[in-house]
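Section: Multi-chain targets

For targets with more than one molecule, the full set of components is provided together so that the structure can be written out for the assembly as a whole rather than chain by chain. Components appear in the order listed by the source. The example entry contains two components.
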Amino acid sequence: MKKTIFSTFALATLVFASCSSDDDTTSENGGGLIPDIEVPETYSFTRDGASTINFPGQTQRILMGEELISSMLDFDTATEQSLLDMFSNENTPFINEDLNASTRQLRNTIASSEDLFTESSAEAATIRQFFADLLSDQVTEVFTAQAVVASAGVAGQIADGGSTRYVNAQGLEYNQAVTKGFIGALMVDQIVNNYISTTLLDAGTNIEDNDNDIPRNDSGTDTQMEHFWDEAYGYVYGTSADLTNPNLTIGDDDSFLNKYIGRVEEDADFAGIAEDIFDAFLLGRAAIVAKDYDVRDEQTAILRELLSQVIGIRAVYYLQQGKNGIESDDFGAAFHDLSEGFGFIYSLQFTRNPSTDAPYFSGEEVLDFVGDLTTGNGFWDLTPEQLDTMSEAIASRFSFTVAEAAVID
Amino acid sequence: MKRILGILVLVAFVYACSSSDNDSDSDDNQGFNPSNFDRTPLLENWADNIIIPGYIDFLSKVNTLQTETTAFTENSNDLTAIRAAWLDAYTTWQRVSMFENGPAETVGLRLNVNIYPANVETIENNIASGSYNLDLSSNRVAKGFPALDYLLFGIASNDDNILDIYNGPEGEAYKQYLEDIVADMQSLTTTVLDEWQGGFRDDFVANNGSSATASVDRLANDYIFYFEKFLRAGKMGIPGGVFSGDVEPNTIEALYAGNLSKLFFIEGLDAVQDFFNGVSYNGSTQGESLGSYLDELNVLEDGTNLSTTINNQFDTAREFVNGLNTFEQELQSIPPTNFLNAYDEVQRIVPLLKVDMVSALSISIDFADADGD
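Its structure, encoded as tokens over all components, is:
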């Protein structure tokens, strides 16, 4: 059940070839052709009969994130210390004992990509502290106002349809800011600026080792290059029902990047994006097996663009939904959307534009947006015009329009 | 003046273009399209003959409930009168729940008086602590009709035991809570009616345009939203397990009193159909309505007036639901086939309203399914 896909170059040749009478599709005689890449139907790769796929660390960090964000609304038992412990995996904070036993943690993985933060340790520390502060503030500002009706400048609870949301004095739900902020600072940063970057893939003797099928030290099967690629894959699909065929349940497998790829996929304007993302992971991995690093890097560019787009689309979507709420005086619904949007906007600084090789928005630009959203009484003061301006500013850097992102249709 | 001339020219132009269309309806249609239709009589009928009389009636029932609550707290020997007042008010609520627009939307009336099932734990905690703020969003599950349902029918296994609680050591706390939540309903309803009878009625009628924020568009959206989410899904779909896959009998309306949810559904369906036909709240006079609006635009579907198709489906749905036993009984069958067949007839109304009607009237649906978190 394997299909053979050729690199772009070979494929182009094939298309021309197929127009001629000679319909021979094999390329065995192709002196100048790039070798074929065997692409399996699912994300299953083996060497000598044993699977070479392995990404426990990514699955664990997703699960740590899940416990943390659900604990942020556990008014009865969570404390500032317990949340911070979960963030840095200290003092056995998790219900899941496997997570407690792990040496991995969220805090030091946030903003830790090689490409963006190797020489920006102060910036990385600031970002990690940003999240730690959100956790602390949830307890000191929001937990203490659990039985207060929120109003401009007053933290408390606010109705959003049948739900009750808990916001700070500016209308922000810290738990939403953390959840959506992780999507950029953890998942997307680790993928686009780290694991699928040549900085890691081609580091040290990785190319030579991969060329010669030499496994990485602590593994009997996969090469270091393969493993990096799989770790990237794990940040999207690490909790999928079927790890090898994850699009069967895309959107339902976590509260982070997987979920929002699923949401964007539901919008007809972007239908197909989930398949495109998976296909790029799949072909990139197959290219590594075939030692075809050009094809691999083409997939890196595709993934950078598409995963960044997911963040951009959701940022604009929530700003527009928030605008609708404000226009109809439904502050509860508006603030919930804006809180999610806040997190996605924060995440923009971790994206990667393949054309410029830089994030779509710099950290400074993101902080300007954050400033606009949080001056004075924050969300309480926002106008529809401001939200439109911000939406346009974000969409203009991407290939989608505000109208395309604004509604799921 | 120039503008009027421009419109005339445009109408003439459109007419000229369509006259060759061999369209037998074109004469009737001339001058009637959703953008120049005069919505004022429609809005007046809604406000003056349906909505405001509805709220007046509802408030009077809530006032009676308040009176009976006070009487009960003074002499807690008999549940009959307070229960009857509760039932009367709850039934009347089914007539006005759909008008979650303007004042009712501002105070969030529907979710303040009728989130069911009630959260028993929150209710009991509130009563035990004696300190609660009913303005809190999180207390909406602990007040309104569903909380009264629990307090009047569900706090003990039979009537004698219920009365024992009101006359026991915690009795005062329970009575206080009864009074407080009824007062809360009274205050919210009074606010809504006062605003309608104050400036809102005129604003509502004056907002007679055809934009997304015009009164007709807004109320039509609220009406369809009510039908889809609260009547169809809340009263039938969710208990029937249509969305979850499992029957959820504990999510029916008036869970503790029992055997009322079907009656409430029918009352709600009647109210929705009456509103569609512009039937006066007090009486059977028909005024301008969504149905008459469709008729004036001469909207046909397969040769039949769309309004007739919609009314026929309302009737079919009612017939199916009336043919059921109580919802409690129906939901004991696994799967509850008859219940679900009736639900399907209710569901068939949704596209008629949400697609056919709104597209004929050039109304945009302004709500979407929730994003899921």
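Chain A has one domain: 55-409.
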